[in-house]
Design brief:
Length: about 290
């Protein structure tokens, strides 16, 4: 049976939190056990762009997620895709235009052609990055490739190892072509203080006990109504990319098989200028 990199949060959507979650980039007891643990050591640099585990919680009608690890301050993108309704794409189109212009092309188009696991059709895309002394987060309603509503955080947050910020309703970012879809602020925090966790020999088996010992990283909270859910099922795919959305590392959730190095743009670690050669159906990924 095909394994996937996706995880369902059905149980979390019906769960009442036993403790308060504070969005500060640190693990709270209310999260409980990790829902995903890294399987391979990073190809993007130990304690640089490294992701160890994922925790999730639903409380006060909000989804709270903590991804423990680090992000390098070189504009590398932490990519988070949400499949929340029937309006998404199993193969990403290159037509939504957002993030920033590279010449005459918006770099979001570099993701065109990337194929997700069968049955996963994301409609929302969140990405976080650090660079130039700032940390920022955007979220995009891709509208099935038909257009974009890109919302960015209100200015950029000063980044000196730990930062907090928000993405607020009505703050349309560059490239937007349709109306705002948020009704509540997304709050986030990044605590980049981790110096432990998995190592940096790409493809080696991750020490999962060490991964679970990491308690800091990227955390966000989003109101369930803004996820545009059409059922009580929510799935996410998480991956580490470069700054131009066109070269993937091996840091994904679910985790890749032991021995897998950076995916690059073709799944084999080669730079092609796009992610069009990535087909996640080609990997025996771990179901979470």
């Amino acid at each position: 049976m095909k394994k996937t990199l996706l995880f369902a949060l059905v149980a979390l959507l019906a769960r009442t939190a036993v403790a308060q979650i504070t969005i500060d980039g640190q693990l709270d007891a209310g999260y409980g056990s990790a829902i995903a643990v890294q399987t391979v050591e990073t190809g993007f640099g130990d304690n640089q762009s490294e992701w160890n585990a994922v925790y999730a919680n639903v409380s006060s009608n909000r989804l709270n997620v903590l991804i423990t690890g680090n992000i390098e301050a070189n504009f590398n993108k932490l990519e988070i895709f949400f499949d929340t309704n029937a309006g998404g794409e199993g193969t990403l189109s290159s037509t939504p235009q957002y993030d920033f212009l590279n010449g005459s092309t918006w770099i979001s188009s570099n993701m065109g052609g990337m194929v997700f696991d069968n049955g996963f059709t994301p409609n929302l895309h969140m990405y976080a990055r650090a660079g130039g002394g700032n940390f920022s987060v955007d979220i995009v309603d891709r509208l099935g490739g038909g257009g974009t509503a890109v919302l960015g955080n209100t200015g950029t947050s000063a980044y000196a190892g730990t930062t907090t910020g928000s993405v607020n309703p009505g703050t349309l970012a560059n490239g937007s072509s349709v109306a705002n879809f948020l009704t509540n602020s997304i709050t986030y925090a990044m605590d980049n203080s981790n110096v432990a966790g998995i190592g940096g020999t790409a493809g080696n088996a991750a020490d999962q006990a060490a991964a679970l010992a990491v308690t800091t990283g990227f955390e966000f909270s989003i109101d369930l109504s803004d996820l545009l859910l059409d059922s009580n099922v929510l799935r996410m795919a998480i991956m580490q990319d470069n700054g131009n959305h066109n070269y993937l590392s091996n840091q994904t959730f679910g985790g890749l098989p032991v021995g897998t190095g950076n995916l690059g743009g073709d799944g084999a670690g080669n730079f092609t200028g796009t992610l069009g050669g990535i087909n996640f159906n080609n990997f025996a990924l771990y179901r979470l």
